[in-house]
Task: structure prediction
Amino acid sequence: MTSLLVIIVLVLLAVALWQLTKIFDLTQVGSSSDDSQIASDNDNNVQGYILFGFLAFIYIFTIYGLLKWGNLALHTPASEHGLLVDNLMNITWVLIFTVQVITQGLLYWFSFKNRGHKDKKALFFADSNKLEAIWSIIPSVVLACLILYGLYAWNNIMFVDKDEDVIEIELYAQQFKWTARYAGQDNVLGKANVRLIEGVNTLGVDMSDPNAQDDIVVSELHIPKGKKIHFKMRSQDVLHSAYMPHFRAQMNCVPGMVTEFAFIPTYTTAEYRELPFMVEKVANINKLRAEKSVELVAKGGTALDPYTFDYLLLCNKICGASHYNMQMKVVVDTPEDYKKWLSEKTTLAQDIKAAAAAEKPAEGAKATTDTAAAKIKDTVKAVVDTVKAAVAKVAMK
Ligand SMILES: [Cu+2]
Result:
């Protein structure tokens, strides 16, 4: 309590001192001719040129960044709708850049042109209807066109016709991994609920549903080139986001609801690896890895493996500590390879049966151990009883 009082007193003292200095300052007004705080024409000129220097810095850095790191951006899209997304993105970039150059140029030019000057007086200017109309109508029209084009693209991408021939796949998100479920022969995913999660049925598939009988659960996603894949996303715990950058696809995975996305892959993994830009990119990565390996080996570590490209399904919502590592390999096969791969997989129903069968002998083994333990216990008890009886007999004698 005392220390609190001391602190309050100190704070009040500081405030009082501050007020005193202010009063002192006020008493000095008019008594001195110090105008060092008032900008001179020279100051205004310097500020004007610094302003232009800053504008130059922004543009030089932007152009340098584009030249130096521009090649790190995503290249050729690997899905049919990807071209539409990239187109929309590029148009938006061109528009933003053009408008930015014009408006920033005007802003900096007028600031420089009308910089402070001893003989200049600011003009009072309330408003101009003409100017207001120009800068309201032009952006509205441009934005409306952009939004309309965006909506057209969105509808094109998101629309899946009921009668369309698609492959149904479920993507199941949980901290911190992805699991895929194929709909099987009937191409209908069985119902699922988190309450039904048990043993190998990690996705909570309702095994009483006839549609679930041929469902296949895998940890690596294979999809065929040229076929429309209809993904249905679920999440077990928190918000995740299924992100497949090479296919220009992203959709949130929300606990308690099913979200969806569909696309047609246009390059198999093998074809995408052969694209010139990818060959160059991989060679560059491996060059860096080789250099790093030399360093590591010199320090007694192990060399890095060479990198090969693979499509990835990533999580794009920060969902916890290992979010950065939540990913699944995606392989785009030729339709024949895809069929072959899928035919080699066992269904979830078979997996559950196999797990149950594997559990039974284990239970039997446990029973045998229990019997043996009981037998030993009985023998020990009998020996103890005999010894006790003998001791009692001797004592009686
Ligand atoms: Cu996640």
Q: What stands out?
A: The pocket of copper (II) ion is lined by residues 173, 240, 315, 317, 319, 323, 326 (CB under 6 Å). Strands lie at 166-174, 177-182, 216-218, 221-224, 228-235, 240-244, 249-253, 259-263, 311-315, 327-333. The chain has a mean pLDDT of 86. The domain at 167-356 is CATH 2.60.40.420 (Immunoglobulin-like).
